[in-house]
């Protein structure tokens, strides 16, 4: 109970440079038959606007659970999660759907695009839900988002006609279309070759430079080092949280990488 | 989410699996088609029965000489000899609900014309009969009261008799022989077809003056029946009452004793035929709707498969902000679209089948607008009902699990 009062106080005081994400002592349990899995054991974290955080950890470290809670796909068993200053840990499913739609952009490892659908329509998808957006504006927004990821010339291509890297870029454009305050990328480079992976990271860096807050989950060190801050999870707790002072620029790295010819 | 967007998504999802969608619809198509065709057949039968009953005469009542119980032996229709022409006159005079009445008797005989002969029913009556039965002549004329008064040997023949005896020859003015008596044919009745009540061919008859029949053939003075027409459809029951009271009085039947006559109201027969045909229609429709039910189960089955197949898509939609309601609506509308398209095709199939039945089998089929409306409502309801469970299942998916689904 004490933590509840405390966190509410903190919300009120922290109105100035408000954190995009503030997680207060979050626990998550799963009941698996008889056993109770304690996936998160008291996690507290704050992410300020404009940050680029890489979350690392082995599988089973709790990083995916953490991501699901941050992405409003799941709710904490206890503790509080403030997104843009709003306590979302107690919201209904419907309210969470609106939050996901308006404030969070998702990028997944498996791209998760709709099959037999054009790039444009994939990007338009989030604008179909939540607030009403006119057909013309919907298309404009989607085109702009696709241009931001460098796919302005591929809008009418179907998912199957795009390479892995291009598909992931469509996914990033889809995440951007509703101008979210937070981009969540769950192993976005996991299914890509190393060169394409760096390309994708490059896009994320560019977007971050423009002020977008990004949280990236990865288990690869060489991907994590492109972020501004690295957080390491182990056994449901944060073990390490450090600023990455000498981060490489993806655009520079790309120049030194050999181009793969097929 | 707007309805148009959902509709577009639903149509695209269905177009993606054309063969499957068509096969799924087939159940609804057959169901709706069968319901429409079967209700059409039932309604057609009902209508034809109504027409046939109406064709028997306007507001017709049939007074028959009755059954009688003599010393334990029960004799059938026509066994009594108490119904006479005076009764007919009395009915006409004393029953205000009666517009016209025609007395009659009948026999059967072999009729001969030239080398041809034909066995048929012979009706002896008065000119009022043509009015009461609402049965004019197609050619020639009917006989008159003076023919009755003089017991003239004139005959008006039915269409079936004409066909069998005369073929291409014009019968009017020809002479036929009935029981060795020569009769001059003066008219041919218009064809009426089979009767609704008894199913016999009404056109297989010859009509002659009552007196001629009674004096020259049957040798009696009593009547087999009196045909009465009430002043209107509404007064036919009143007429029935009045006739019954009058005849009981005239025949001196003590209170409590059985009538020696019977009065049959055509309205009763019409109602009976209506009831039978309604039952028939419902029977056909309920058998047909079983296939609609099976069609609905087919939709549910396919929608369940579709939800499982598209688990990942559902996960993506939920992740980017679709609410449970959005997902549920999407699948529900897909099911409704499926059943509505099926229903629309089903209507075409039903109407087509009805036309086929009319043309090939020659049955009267009445396509009712009501059946079509009900079919549309029913197929929508089937879509909602059988789409609901799969849609709920889709909406209840856990997005985390759904996104991980391979």
Our count of helices of chain B gives 13
Structural class of chain A: alpha/beta
Distance N terminus to C terminus of chain A? 60 Å
What is the chain-wise order of helices and strands of chain A?
HEEEHEEHEHHHEHEHEEH
Q: Specify Rg of chain B, calculated over alpha carbons.
A: 33 Å
Biggest sheet strand order of chain B reads 4-5-10-7-9-8
Helix content estimate of chain A: 25-40%
* Secondary-structure element order of chain B, N to C: HHEEEHEEHEHEHEEEHEHEHHHHH
Mean pLDDT over the full residue set of chain A: 86
Rg of chain A (CA only): 19 Å
Strand content of chain B: 15-25%
Most extensive chain-chain interface:
A-B, 26 and 21 residues
Quick overview of this protein structure:
Chain A is α/β, with parallel strands linked by helices and 262 residues long. Chain A contains nine helices and ten strands.
Sequence-ordered SSE layout with sheet pairings:
The complex is a heterodimer of chains A (262) and B (406).
Chain A: H1 2-13, E1 21-32, E2 35-47, E3 52-56, H2 63-70, E4 78-83, E5 86-87, H3 93-103, E6 104-107, H4 119-128, H5 135-148, H6 164-176, E7 182-186, H7 194-209, E8 213-217, H8 221-224, E9 229-234, E10 237-243, H9 250-256
Parallel strand pairs in A: 3-8, 3-9, 6-7, 7-8
Antiparallel strand pairs in A: 1-2, 1-4, 4-5, 9-10
Helix pairs in contact in A: 4-5, 4-6, 5-6, 6-7, 7-9
Chain B: H1 3-16, H2 18-55, E1 60-65, E2 68-70, E3 73-75, H3 85-94, E4 98-113, E5 116-125, H4 128-132, E6 137-140, H5 145-149, E7 154-157, H6 159-165, E8 175-178, E9 181-189, E10 205-209, H7 210-218, E11 225-230, H8 236-250, E12 261-265, H9 266-309, H10 311-319, H11 324-361, H12 369-395, H13 399-404
Parallel strand pairs in B: 5-10, 7-9
Antiparallel strand pairs in B: 1-11, 1-12, 2-3, 4-5, 4-8, 4-11, 6-9, 7-10, 8-9
Would you write up a description of this structure?
The complex is a heterodimer of chains A (262) and B (406). With 262 residues, chain A is of the alpha/beta class. Chain A contains 9 helices and 10 strands. Chain A is globular and about 50 Å long. Residues 1-16 of chain A have low confidence and may be disordered. By secondary structure, chain B is of the alpha+beta class. In chain B, strand 2 and strand 3 (73-75) form a beta hairpin. Chain B starts with a helix and ends with a helix. The model of chain B has no long low-confidence stretch (mean pLDDT 86).
């Amino acid at each position: 109970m004490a933590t509840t009062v405390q966190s509410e106080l903190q919300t009120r005081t922290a109105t100035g440079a408000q954190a995009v994400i503030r997680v207060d002592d979050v626990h998550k349990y799963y009941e698996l038959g008889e056993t109770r899995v304690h996936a998160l054991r008291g996690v507290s974290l704050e992410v300020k606007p404009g940050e680029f955080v890489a979350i690392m950890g082995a599988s089973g470290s709790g990083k995916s659970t953490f991501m699901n809670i941050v992405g409003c796909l799941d709710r904490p068993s206890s503790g509080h999660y403030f997104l843009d200053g709003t306590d979302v840990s107690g919201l209904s499913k419907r309210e969470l759907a609106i939050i996901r739609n308006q404030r969070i952009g998702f990028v997944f490892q498996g791209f998760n695009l709709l099959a037999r659908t054009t790039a444009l329509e994939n990007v338009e998808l989030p604008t179909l839900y939540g607030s009403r957006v006119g057909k013309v504006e919907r298309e404009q927004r989607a085109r702009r988002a696709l241009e931001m990821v460098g796919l302005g010339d591929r809008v009418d291509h179907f998912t199957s006609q795009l390479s892995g890297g291009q598909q992931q870029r469509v996914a990033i454009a889809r995440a951007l279309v509703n101008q979210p305050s937070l981009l969540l990328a769950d192993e976005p480079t996991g299914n890509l070759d190393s060169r394409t992976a760096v390309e994708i990271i490059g896009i994320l860096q560019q977007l971050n430079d423009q002020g977008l807050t990004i949280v990236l989950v990865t288990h690869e060190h060489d991907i994590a080092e492109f972020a501004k801050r690295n957080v390491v999870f182990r056994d449901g707790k944060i073990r390490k949280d450090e600023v990455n002072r000498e981060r490489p620029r993806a655009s520079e790295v790309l120049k030194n990488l050999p181009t793969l010819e097929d | 989410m707007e309805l148009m967007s959902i509709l577009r998504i639903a149509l695209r999802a269905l177009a993606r699996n054309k063969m499957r969608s068509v096969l799924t619809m087939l159940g609804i198509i057959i169901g709706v088609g069968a319901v429409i065709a079967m209700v059409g057949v039932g309604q057609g039968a009902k209508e034809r029965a109504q027409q046939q009953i109406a064709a028997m005469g306007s507001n017709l009542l049939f007074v028959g000489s009755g059954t009688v119980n003599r010393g334990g032996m029960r004799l059938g229709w026509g066994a009594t000899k108490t119904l006479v022409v005076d009764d007919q006159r009395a009915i006409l005079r004393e029953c205000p609900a009666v517009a016209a009445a025609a007395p009659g008797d009948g026999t059967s005989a072999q009729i001969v014309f030239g080398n041809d002969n034909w066995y048929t029913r012979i009706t002896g009556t008065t000119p009022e009969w043509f009015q009461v039965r609402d049965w004019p002549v197609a050619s020639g004329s009917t006989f008159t009261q003076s023919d009755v008064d003089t017991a003239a040997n004139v005959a008006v023949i039915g269409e079936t008799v004409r066909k069998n005896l005369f073929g291409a020859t014009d019968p009017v003015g020809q002479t036929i022989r009935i029981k060795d008596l020569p009769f001059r044919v003066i008219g041919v009745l218009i064809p009426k077809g089979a009767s609704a009540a008894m199913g016999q061919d009404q056109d297989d008859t010859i009509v002659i003056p009552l007196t001629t029949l009674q004096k020259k053939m049957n040798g009696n003075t009593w009547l087999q029946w009196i045909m009465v027409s009430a002043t209107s459809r509404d007064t036919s029951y009143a007429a029935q009452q009045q006739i019954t009271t009058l005849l009981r009085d005239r025949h001196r039947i003590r209170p409590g004793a059985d009538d020696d006559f019977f009065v049959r109201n055509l309205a009763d027969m019409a109602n009976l035929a209506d009831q039978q045909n309604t039952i028939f229609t419902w029977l056909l429709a309920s058998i047909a709707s079983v296939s609609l039910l099976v069609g609905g189960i087919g939709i549910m089955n396919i929608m369940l498969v579709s939800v499982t197949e598209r688990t990942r898509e559902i996960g993506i939609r939920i992740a980017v902000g679709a609410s449970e309601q959005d997902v549920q609506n999407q699948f529900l509308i897909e099911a409704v679209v499926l059943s509505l398209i099926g229903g629309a095709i089903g209507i075409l199939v039903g109407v087509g089948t009805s036309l086929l039945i009319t043309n090939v089998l020659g049955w009267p089929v009445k396509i009712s607008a009501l059946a079509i409306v009900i079919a549309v409502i029913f197929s929508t309801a089937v879509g909602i009902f059988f789409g609901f469970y799969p849609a709920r299942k889709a909406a209840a998916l856990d997005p985390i699990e759904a996104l991980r689904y391979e």
